[in-house]
Structures are given as structure tokens and as C-alpha cells.
């Protein structure tokens, strides 16, 4: 699983995993993903509770033998603000009804977010890699861009539209997605 | 999240309860103040906090603490202060016990009951140990 930063709290008891997470988080930029290694079983519940009270996004936990690997994405300032600029949008249900059509879905979230649950068949292109991976996107198909809340995908939609793609932004996106979900390991 | 804690007992278990909750709250961006009173003053006494007694009959847990790699009380104190937890020693108890600010770990403040109440009046969580 790809993360921007890893902090090792294995072998440590409560409250150390949380304290270490908090300190490591200070070094991340908004939108980056932190991986926390821990052996304290209580950390599964604690990390989630911590993320909820601090406003960061808990992505999920992978077990690797004795070691628990928690993934948290740092909230960026004003992330929850809904400031949509791209005018062609579709809601989650609209996209759900099109899943059987010949369309392209691009998921612009971070790889770790994608791995813990994405729409089957969606192509993972994190926002930061969009420009350099344009050649992977077919020009003659409708492109639906999705992220967690519709903000990153809004920026991606604007960018793709400038490049001549027929783009539609999916609003709100994965935070409220109740359609089919696929998970992957890397 | 605003957390107000009264530490009124001076054993090793009391110290863990107080400092674990305090550091966890501070790590979750909470504002935390601990009011140390009576035996609770031991928890921040320069010397006493390094060798706080285990409750009678539980001395055998010492091994468990080491095995589980639980941080020591001095480590927890440093961490708590590092995360911005405020320590307030009770003036009245200090007077009774003949202690001065210099007898405690660095960075503490001294105050009375009204100081604590003023802080705690709009706290989201109040705890007494």
C-alpha cells in the first residue's frame, strides 16, 4: 500500500500509537497519506476515534502478521467546503445507472483510498499524476471523474476538459457511494 | 474538546490513569489541564514521580508493565507537556506540605480551587482520579 509517510509505533502501548500518529501528522501536507505501524490491538479502535475527533480521514487497516497497518489521510484546509466550479456533474445514482455502459471512470483519490474501496473498473489516477498519465485515458469515451467528496474530481474535471475530454464530475463521490465496490491489495 | 482533570491520588496506577488520558486527549488536539492536589502532587514532584508506589499486593504487575513496554511516568510527563497539557499544582496543599514550585517538574503552574473551576466550567469532559 502506497503511503507518503510511515510512522512505526509497533511494540508500544496506549497512548503511544496515537501520540506518534499525531506528531507524524504534523509533517504531512493536506491530502497526503500516513501509514501507522502498531502492534497494540486497541489501536484499531483508537486510530479511528482519533481520526474522527481530529477531522482526518481514516482509510482502513491491514493486518500483516502481528503488525497492524493503519492508513490515514490528512485533511486539507477547507476540504469540506463545497466550491464546485465545473458545471457538468452527475450524482452517484446517475453514475450507478451507467455502470454497464461503455464509459471511463477515473478515481483521482490517493492509491491507499482507492485500495480500500473503489467502483469496479475505475482507473486509479491520483490527482497529482493526472497530467503525466493523460495518455491512459481514451478520448472518444465519456470520462466520469470521482473522488471522495467531489472537490478533487472537480479540479480534475476542469483539467481534463481543457485537454479536450468529454468529462463529467461525480458528486458527491465515494463518501456516499452505495453501489458496487471492489478492493485491491496495492 | 476541552478536558479538565483532577489528580488527587499519588500511586503509580493513578499516574498512568491521569497521564494516559491526558496525553491521548492532547494528541487528539484537545485542550487539557490537570489540577494536582493532595497526594496527587506526588505525580509531578521532582523526585517522587520517578518512583511512585504500586498499590499493595500488585507489585507483581511491575513485570507486566515492562513486558508490555508501557512508557515510564517521567516519559509520559514529558510527552504530555510536549503536547501542551497544562499542569497546575494546588497552592493550598503545597502550603500544608511545605512544598514550593521548585519541588516540582519544570513548566508547572500554581493555582487554587477557583483557578481550576474557572477552567473546568465549560469543559467537555471532567475527570477525577
Automatic annotation (TrEMBL), chain A:
- Report the InterPro entries cross-referenced here: Rhodanese-like_dom, Rhodanese-like_dom_sf, Thiosulphate_STrfase_CS, TusA-like, TusA-like_sf
GO molecular-function terms, A-Z: thiosulfate-cyanide sulfurtransferase activity
* Keyword Transferase recorded: yes
Q: Which UniProt keywords apply?
A: Transferase
Annotated Rhodanese domain residues:
99-183
Does Glycoprotein appear among the keywords? no
Family recorded in the similarity comment: Belongs to the sulfur carrier protein TusA family.
Q: Can you name this protein?
A: Rhodanese-related sulfurtransferase
Q: Which organism is it from?
A: Melghiribacillus thermohalophilus
UniProtKB/TrEMBL annotation, chain B:
Annotated SUPFAM superfamilies: DsrEFH-like (SSF75169)
Q: Which Pfam families match?
A: DrsE_2
Instruction: Tell me what this protein is called.
Output: Peroxiredoxin family protein
Amino acid at each position: 500500500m502506497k503511503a507518503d509517510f510511515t510512522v512505526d509505533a509497533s511494540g508500544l502501548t496506549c497512548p503511544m500509537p496515537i501520540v506518534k500518529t499525531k506528531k507524524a501528522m504534523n509533517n504531512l501536507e493536506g491530502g497526503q497519506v500516513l501509514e501507522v505501524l502498531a502492534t497494540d490491538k486497541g489501536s484499531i479502535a483508537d486510530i479511528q476515534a482519533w481520526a474522527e475527533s481530529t477531522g482526518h480521514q481514516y482509510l482502513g487497516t491491514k493486518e500483516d502478521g502481528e503488525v497492524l497497518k493503519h492508513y490515514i489521510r490528512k485533511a486539507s484546509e477547507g476540504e469540506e467546503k463545497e466550491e464546485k466550479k465545473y458545471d457538468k456533474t452527475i450524482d452517484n445514482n446517475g453514475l450507478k445507472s451507467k455502470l454497464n455502459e461503455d464509459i471511463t471512470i477515473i478515481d483521482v483519490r490517493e492509491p491507499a483510498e482507492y485500495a480500500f474501496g473503489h467502483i469496479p473498473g475505475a482507473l486509479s489516477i491520483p490527482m497529482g499524476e493526472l497530467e503525466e498519465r493523460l495518455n491512459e485515458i481514451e478520448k472518444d469515451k465519456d470520462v466520469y471523474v470521482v473522488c471522495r467528496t467531489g472537490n478533487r474530481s472537480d479540479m480534475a474535471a476542469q483539467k481534463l476538459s481543457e485537454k479536450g475530454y468529454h468529462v463529467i464530475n461525480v458528486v458527491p463521490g465515494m463518501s456516499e457511494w452505495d453501489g458496487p465496490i471492489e478492493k485491491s491489495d496495492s | 474538546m476541552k478536558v479538565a482533570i483532577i489528580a488527587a491520588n499519588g500511586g503509580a496506577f493513578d499516574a498512568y490513569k491521569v497521564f494516559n488520558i491526558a496525553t491521548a486527549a492532547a494528541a487528539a488536539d484537545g485542550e487539557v489541564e490537570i489540577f494536582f492536589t493532595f497526594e496527587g502532587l506526588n505525580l509531578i514532584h521532582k523526585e517522587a514521580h520517578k518512583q511512585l508506589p504500586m498499590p499493595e499486593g500488585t507489585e507483581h504487575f511491575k513485570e507486566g508493565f515492562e513486558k508490555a513496554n508501557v512508557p515510564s511516568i517521567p516519559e509520559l510527563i514529558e510527552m504530555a507537556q510536549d503536547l501542551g497539557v497544562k499542569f497546575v499544582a494546588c497552592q493550598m496543599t503545597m502550603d500544608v506540605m511545605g512544598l514550593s514550585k521548585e519541588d516540582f517538574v519544570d513548566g508547572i503552574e500554581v493555582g487554587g480551587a477557583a483557578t481550576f473551576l474557572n477552567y473546568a466550567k465549560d469543559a467537555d469532559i471532567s475527570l477525577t482520579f
